[in-house]
Amino acid sequence: MTQIAPADRSPTASAIPAGLASGRTVTLNFADNALLALLLGDHDRHMVRVEQGLGVRLSCRGNRVAIAGDAARVEAAQQALEGLYRRLEQGRAVSASDVDAAIRMSEIDDPRLPQGKLALADLPAIQTKRGAVGPRSPGQATYMEMLGRQEMVFGIGPAGTGKTYLAVAQAVAMLLAGRVDRIVLSRPAVEAGERLGFLPGDLKEKVDPYLRPLYDALHDMMPGEQVIRRMGTGEIEVAPLAFMRGRTLAHSFVILDEAQNTTSVQMKMFLTRMGEGTRMVIAGDLSQVDLPAGTRSGLRDALETLEGVAGIGVCRFDKRDVVRHPLVARIVDAYDQRASAEQDTSARRGRAPDAAGR
Predict the structure, then answer these.
(1) What is the pLDDT of residues 60-80, one digit of tens each?
(2) Considering the entire predicted model, what is its pTM?
(3) Which residues of the chain have pLDDT under 70?
(4) CA-to-CA distance for 320 and 352, rounded, in angstroms?
(5) In whole angstroms, what is the distance from residue 130 CA to residue 222 CA?
(6) What is the dihedral of CA 222, 225, 226, 229, to 10 degrees?
(7) In the 8-state DSSP scheme, what is residue 249?
(8) Rounded to an integer, what distance in angstroms lies between the CA atom of residue 119 and that of residue 83?
(9) Cβ atoms 110, 138 nearer than 8 A
């Protein structure tokens, strides 16, 4: 475990970059030098990642790591390093993505993170046969808590935030634990801006391309042979949204992905399929609506109608929760900034930004 060193063991002023000397400096002592080497990464890559991500200066000497910078950022870096070190003590590896997750979970200005839950290694995880799936951002931590508690959860936010992936993980965990009898995964079959035309093959071959992301998530959670076997017995069902009409889904974990591409009628139809003992997750990104112009998104309509209703949780992700390649977060941010600028321009001209509600 780590300890904060006394003040006289802090690094010298020369080790602190300009602009940080007036801040705080703490030194952490690590008992195991072998684990410390893994924590720092090859050629100190992990240490550099923490420095850049949290805006602090780290310096290592022996089994000690000094952190210098603004007091709040130093505390965040300490939380990140200690959480990663505890992960190593538990026999778990630390990769670059784990370091990024620790940085996100140590955000100093994210109100979604409750006190006492900042350390990545201390957060609860969803247990599947492929291992534990844990949160990698404050939004994911909030989302996972809702998935375990609420009967219906809306996950809203940009691509790469884990909305569908974590929902599938929770569904698999509940199926393996016997808390639900089956998993039902669904998406609306809407083309994302292309015109695909006639697709050859039977019905399954026609709709499978739309459902591929759901298959991918399933195979990440369970061995492939189990997925195939459970799909054969009906314990796992992957189907287009149109197949939901007229059904009542009881004792199931039901996930609707790409929900922004439903119409209001389709969304109401889907939500009213809920039967006894069923959990529902509705995931979507309102910035990527592929419906025809003038068609209102059923996801937007449902949020305006149902938010605040008892038993329904709504988790809103943002760019800070993107856990794919770091460039994805910057892409999302760039599009958000342009959309905001266009809304400001429309407001100054006295027009609504989007008459279609998109």
Answers:
(1) 999 999 999 998 889 889 988
(2) 0.72
(3) 1-22, 107-125, 127-131, 190-208, 210, 325-326, 329, 350-358
(4) 28
(5) 6
(6) 150
(7) B
(8) 5
(9) yes
Report the alpha-carbon distance of residue 255 to residue 127 in Å, rounded.
Answer: 18
| DSSP secondary structure, 26-66, as one string | EEEEES-HHHHHHHH-GGGHHHHHHHHHHT-EEEEETTEEE
Residue 154's H or E segment, with its range, is strand 152-156
In what helix (H) or strand (E) does residue 148 lie, and over which residues does it extend? Answer: helix 138-149
CA–CA dist 130, 221 (Å, integer): 5
Would you give the DSSP letter of residue 180?
Answer: S
Q: Which residues face 122 on adjacent strands? A: none
Residues 6+ apart with CB under 8 A from 82: 2, 28, 119
Report how far Cα 250 is from the mean position of its chain's Cα atoms. 27
Q: Residue 51 corresponds to which amino acid?
A: E
- Which pair of tokens denotes residue 90? 């538990």
Evaluate whether 103 touches 80 at the Cβ level (below 8 Å).
Answer: yes
Residues paired with residue 293 on neighbouring β-strands, in sequence order: none
CB 279 within 8 A of CB 174: yes
* Bridge partner residues of 132 (DSSP): 127
